Amino acid sequence: MAFGAEELRVLRRALALALHPRPASAEDVQDCLRLAESVDEAAREGARLRAFLLADLARYRAALPGTAAGYLALLEEALGTGYRPNPDDLSALRALRGNPTAAALLDRCRTLAEQDVRARLAGRTATPVVPQSRTRLLALPGGRAADEPAKKPAERPAERPAEPGSRPPVKSPRPIPTPGEVFPPRRKPAPPPANPPQQLAAG
């Protein structure tokens, strides 16, 4: 993406406002908005051109080997835009390895494919490295708290001395009786005898 002289002046003013914030004039605001719209339009146009290029590349690849020259030119152009070769491209280049241009592109595409595989494997196996100073946490078992000596159980605080002029607490002369002592349980009545004595009949 290339900028013209006027666009570069607007971009310079926008960067100056970003680095040294100050009230922007209405003209600066309008120029920045127009520049942003131009950049967005250029990005959309670039995406459309890339889509057309990849579609042509797929058509030329499907028509091989008769379209070898056009396919190799399109593949080299696509690689320059960041395109990553797929397995169909590698198979096509292997079939055209007798062509010096195809052989060079095959080596280049193999290198790119290997880089992609390594990047995927590194992304799957990479684990976050925790700094040594943070490997032991206070809130987890075995953290720094485990290194500290066990604290003694909290001792009962000593009674506060009586303030001068205050009356000492009155202690009861005897312990307060329990409810069971004040209200003893009622005794159950004795059951009647199993065989009451028979009264003698009056003579």
UniProtKB/TrEMBL annotation:
Domain of life according to the entry:
Bacteria
The segments labelled Disordered in the record are 124-203
Which segments show compositional bias classed as Basic and acidic residues?
145-162
Q: Where is the composition biased (Pro residues)?
A: 166-178
What name does the UniProt record give this protein? Answer: Uncharacterized protein
